Amino acid sequence: MIPVCEPALDGREMEYVRECIETSWISSAGKFITLFEKKFSEYCGAPHGVACSSGTTAIHLALEALGIGPGDEVIIPDFTLIVSANMVILAGAKPVLVDVDARTWCIDPSKIEQKITPKTKAIMAVHMYGHPCHMDRINEIARRHNLYVIEDCAEAHGAEVNGVRVGALSDVACFSFYGNKILTTGEGGMCVCKDDEIARRMRLLCNQGFGEPRFVHQVVGYNYRLTNVQAAIGLAQTEMVSEKVQKKRWIGQKYNELLADWPYVTLPVEEPWAKNVYWMYGIVIKPDLGLTKDEVMTKLREKGVDTRSFFCPMSLQPAYKGNDHRFPDISGSYPVSVDLWNSGLYLPSGLPLTEEQINTVVEKLRELKQ
Ligand SMILES: Cc1ncc(COP(=O)(O)O)c(C=O)c1O
């Protein structure tokens, strides 16, 4: 079976982890945390990096540090991982859904303004499957309406908008280092930002609100800390980020070439203003193929190729049915995100993927209709 994703631990991970164990610095203090925060935030072009336990907790920290809470609304894409909506709810605010763009699969800037109300405090831009959101348009809307912008960069380490890396295009950017991400620490996350005070608040919230004197707490905080062992892996991964991004783009371009003349799927795009890092190589099945997404996934599995479905939109989540005032209003129409759910899936895209494996994946896919 060609797996849909595998991590690549081909740098100095072992050496750095061994150092943690040999020196007993295995908990959430230690030099690798500082080094990882510094190296990764520098890569993003932002002065602050606050490491935390996951991409999920990074989003929660960002929302709380920006002061978003009860009575506030946050605009998010309908097509995203449920984490986006759940963290807005956890912060006490209400997620407001906007459909995505049919080309980039990211939040559609032309549909944002109609969802802005006096309660709106922020726009959460989720970069999907490696393609960045149109941040120039989103930031322009946010400026006019005096809103914060949060980037969710979980799927887009190294992606760019007009030559600027994601992570430096918003008030706070949140990264995930889960096992299937472009950089991984097993589980882990980081908030990256420019503002000193926002960084200070995120650091405080991440560590139970510990301040001076110790055990006297000014805020309600959390234990969202990353360990030195995870940061050791993260530092080794960050040292190789350029190679990893280059490999992802190579995989994306190989699939593009091999599938360009097969008319039964829509391929991912790279807009002229964007650098797509093809975190996962997504395709959308066209009706002419005569097979559903589930049928395609089952047939490919039988042929030894693992795939994953695209996300289920927030507007279709059973978890948000019911009259809870915290939940997003799911009564609207989100045709693009529903279509992506019905017909979208991604092909094997892991960093260790070989050219031979890519050829096999495409061969097996093309066998479905010749
Ligand atoms: C868009 C998006 N946001 C947030 C997350 C959450 O990250 P984590 O799994 O590290 O909590 C993920 C992925 O897992 C994601 O794909």
Detailed description of the structure:
There is one protein chain. By secondary structure, the protein is α/β, with parallel strands linked by helices. It folds into two domains: 228 residues, Type I PLP-dependent aspartate aminotransferase-like (Major domain) (Aspartate Aminotransferase, domain 2, 3-Layer(aba) Sandwich); 125 residues, Aspartate Aminotransferase, domain 1, CATH 3.90.1150. It has eleven helices and 14 strands. A seven-stranded mixed beta sheet has the order 1-9-8-5-4-2-3, with helices on both faces. The two termini are 23 Å apart. 51% of the residues are buried. It binds pyridoxal-5'-phosphate. Pyridoxal-5'-phosphate binds next to α3.
CATH superfamily of the largest domain: Type I PLP-dependent aspartate aminotransferase-like (Major domain)
Which ions and ligands are bound to the chains? pyridoxal-5'-phosphate
Spatial arrangement of strands, main beta sheet: 1-9-8-5-4-2-3
Tally of structural domains: 2
Average pLDDT for all residues: 97
CATH topology of the largest domain: Aspartate Aminotransferase, domain 2
Helix-residue proportion:
25-40%
Low-confidence stretches: none
- What composes the largest sheet? 7 strands, mixed
Rounded to an integer, what's the Rg over CA atoms? Answer: 21 Å
| Shape estimate | globular
Order of helices and strands: HHEHEHEEHEEEEEHHHEEEHEHEH
Number of strands: 14
According to CATH, what is the class of the largest domain? Alpha Beta
Strand content range: 15-25%
